[in-house]
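Retry 2 of 3 after timeout on previous attempt. Resubmitting structure tokens to design endpoint.
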């Protein structure tokens, strides 16, 4: 019958070894994108940084926020991670989420609070826990400015931290690879050689700008 499942022969299913082999191959494929080296994201819980990863069909680079959490944060089964990855800006007020505050709900759910508008997002599912509450003058103003905005959940990416300390994210399906990073653009402005590291190129651009000032 069409659609009827066929029972596989005994011993042909997944076991722990085959599952880990598949996960290792999956980790090595392009679905995992490196976004931070060891030491770039602070070790203290709540430390955060903005990273570029992936590009829209219109050529716009996506910005994400990494947040250091407890062991197990945003990890796949049998993977190690203590890093959350979410949107670069608040879904409610567009304030950078690198300034957001990591906390826990009464039930222990990890949550991220935007300090500007007060919106709170579940860091496991992206669900909105609080949307533009308007508590206090700053939040009230933010609520008025965004009162017609539809409630939107946060994007939560799966993450993995290698033994080397490098942080990887799994980008949403359909995300294109970046063709030019901020460092690349800085290098072009600085007129430096492609043989120089991207970090050095960015520093060269900043130095050149100061010299002209």
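Retry 2 succeeded. Sequence:
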């Amino acid at each position: 019958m069409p659609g009827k499942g066929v029972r596989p022969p005994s011993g042909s299913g997944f076991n722990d070894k085959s599952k880990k082999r598949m996960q290792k191959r999956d980790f090595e494929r392009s679905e995992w994108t490196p976004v931070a080296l060891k030491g770039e994201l602070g070790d203290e819980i709540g430390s955060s940084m903005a990273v570029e990863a992936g590009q829209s069909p219109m050529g716009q680079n996506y910005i994400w926020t990494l947040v250091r959490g407890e062991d197990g944060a945003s990890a796949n089964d049998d993977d190690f991670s203590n890093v959350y990855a979410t949107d670069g800006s608040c879904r409610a007020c567009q304030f950078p989420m690198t300034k957001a505050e990591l906390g826990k709900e009464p039930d222990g759910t990890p949550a991220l609070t935007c300090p500007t508008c007060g919106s709170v997002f579940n860091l496991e599912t992206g669900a909105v826990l609080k949307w533009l509450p308007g508590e206090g003058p700053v939040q009230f103003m933010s609520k008025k400015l965004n009162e017609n905005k539809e409630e939107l959940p946060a994007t939560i990416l799966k993450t993995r931290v290698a033994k080397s300390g490098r942080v990887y994210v799994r980008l949403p399906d359909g995300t294109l690879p970046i063709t030019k990073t901020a460092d690349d653009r800085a290098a072009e402005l600085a007129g430096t050689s492609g043989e120089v590291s991207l970090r050095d190129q960015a520093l060269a651009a900043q130095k050149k700008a100061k010299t002209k000032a």
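Attempt log closed. Helices lie at 16-28, 137-145, 182-190, 198-212.
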